[in-house]
């Protein structure tokens, strides 16, 4: 089974529209610019990444301030544990105007938004950006988010994915309610061809939607679909729907096994494994010399992240109040059984660390440089480390997270990307204009694929 379509890496910039990057100590970094409430800040970062020929800038999101730890948002506010999150539709609108090539992606929840809203939002972005939109599908299980939206109880793990499957069926169906060529703009006759605009008439277990969508078929046919589920059911969901999969594997061997498993599942689902990109989240700590890079790494590991910020973010992620445990307590089988979604993460860390996992390890995985692979050294050394993963069938590229903003991305574009380009591992210029073209992904069939009557 061939798993890779080409021999060039995919590079995604992992963004937050707020005060802190994925690395929770980033706001304390002496080189961080606190311009996150200014549109020009995002425009500057977007243009910088576009100069580095990145495929995509992707924005993670949460719909609440972290408030699980101790039943309060106080620690999140005090220690800067991602308390600020802007509305991504507005931020991406800014970027659609400030950039012209780089893909623009965002997280939108299948729990708190209806399918029609998501379909229209990303179809609009795809048009206004000239075919650069991507949607990261999340099911959301966090109590803090639920309390902001008046949701009293969450569905179980498998039922959430059942609901998400139907959600995707509705969104994809709505995107297909306009056929290619439906718009005519005949000033002496018809605006559009009614035979090519269709009602969806979906009525299912969780959703109903009449349609058609109020946005014509988009430049990409459909926006690119991203997913990051790591459980068995999450991987099955990704095998059916995802075109770009984000992973969080901390070590090379774990990543190789995950890559092989996911590609096999995609093949078993009847899709071409080469049509889906798999990219682990990674940090790049780059210096003019190796010793300089190691000094930066030590500061990032030991000086900038407060343990309370780590525990606050871990509680948010796991939807469990860890304030009742000591930070150096071992993660026991009893704790694993009581916390939904923690089992796969602990198993990966056990394999990576080769010892008992403590709560400090687990918290650090979410808030410090332990969350994914860490490439450290000069630009040439970091490029070599990335190439080892790429050539070793551990990934199709990387989702690069920032240790500080915007300097971490400046370091990569200035010192790492040129080495990848000289090695033939990354583009030297954009060869297309849409995100699908950047990723080498096929355009979905524009033929009629929804049931219903014409509008």
UniProtKB/TrEMBL annotation:
The protein's UniProt keywords, in alphabetical order, are: Flavoprotein, FMN, Monooxygenase, Oxidoreductase
Domain Luciferase-like, which positions? 27-390
UniProt entry tagged with the keyword Heme: no
TM spans (from-to): none
Q: What is its EC number?
A: 1.-.-.-
Annotated InterPro entries: Diverse_substr_monoxygenases, Luciferase-like_dom, Luciferase-like_sf, NTA_MOA
Q: GO molecular function of the protein, one example?
A: oxidoreductase activity
Top-rank taxon: Bacteria
Which family does the entry's similarity section mention? Answer: Belongs to the NtaA/SnaA/DszA monooxygenase family.
Q: Which PANTHER family match?
A: ALKANESULFONATE MONOOXYGENASE-RELATED, C2H2 FINGER DOMAIN TRANSCRIPTION FACTOR (EUROFUNG)-RELATED
Q: What is this protein called?
A: LLM class flavin-dependent oxidoreductase
- To which species is this protein native? Nocardia jiangsuensis
Recite the lineage of the species. Bacteria, Bacillati, Actinomycetota, Actinomycetes, Mycobacteriales
């Amino acid at each position: 089974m061939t798993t890779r379509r080409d021999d060039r890496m995919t590079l995604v910039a992992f963004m937050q529209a707020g005060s802190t990057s994925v690395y929770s100590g980033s706001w304390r970094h002496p080189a961080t610019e606190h311009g996150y409430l200014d549109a020009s800040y995002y425009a500057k970062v977007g243009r910088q990444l576009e100069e580095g020929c990145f495929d995509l800038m992707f924005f993670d999101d949460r719909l609440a301030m972290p408030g699980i730890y101790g039943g309060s948002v106080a620690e999140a506010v005090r220690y800067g544990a991602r308390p600020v999150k802007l509305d991504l539709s507005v931020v991406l609108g800014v970027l659609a105007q400030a950039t012209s090539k780089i893909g623009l992606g965002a997280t939108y929840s299948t729990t708190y938004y209806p399918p029609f809203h998501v379909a229209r939002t990303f179809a609009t972005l795809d048009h206004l950006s000239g075919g650069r939109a991507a949607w990261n599908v999340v099911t959301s299980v966090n109590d803090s988010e639920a309390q902001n939206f008046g949701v009293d109880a969450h569905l179980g793990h498998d039922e959430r994915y059942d609901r998400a499957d139907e959600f995707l069926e509705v969104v994809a169906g709505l995107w297909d309610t306009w056929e290619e060529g439906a718009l005519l703009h005949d000033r002496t006759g018809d605006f559009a061809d009614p035979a090519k605009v269709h009602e969806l008439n979906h009525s299912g277990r969780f959703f109903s939607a009449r349609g058609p969508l109020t946005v014509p078929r988009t430049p990409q046919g459909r926006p690119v679909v991203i997913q990051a589920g790591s459980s068995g059911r999450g991987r099955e969901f990704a095998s059916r729907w995802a075109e770009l999969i984000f992973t969080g594997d901390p070590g090379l061997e774990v990543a190789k096994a995950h890559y092989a498993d996911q590609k096999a599942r995609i093949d078993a689902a009847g899709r071409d494994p080469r049509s889906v990109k798999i990219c682990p989240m990674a940090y790049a700590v780059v210096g003019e010399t190796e010793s300089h890079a190691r000094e930066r790494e030590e500061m990032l590991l030991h000086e900038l992240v407060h343990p309370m910020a780590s525990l606050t973010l871990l509680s948010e992620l796991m939807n469990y109040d860890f304030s009742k445990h000591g930070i150096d307590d071992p993660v026991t089988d009893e704790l694993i059984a009581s916390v939904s979604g923690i089992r796969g993460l602990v198993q990966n860390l056990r394999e990576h660390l080769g010892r008992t996992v403590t709560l400090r390890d687990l918290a650090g995985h979410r808030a410090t440089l332990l969350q994914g692979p860490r490439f450290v050294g000069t630009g040439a050394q970091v490029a070599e480390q990335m190439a080892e993963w790429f050539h070793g069938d551990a990934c199709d590229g990387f989702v690069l997270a920032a240790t500080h903003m915007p300097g971490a991305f400046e370091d990569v574009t200035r010192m790492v990307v040129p080495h990848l380009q000289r090695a033939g591992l990354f583009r030297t210029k954009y060869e297309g204009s849409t995100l699908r073209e950047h990723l080498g992904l096929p355009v979905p069939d524009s033929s009629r694929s929804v049931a219903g009557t014409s509008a």
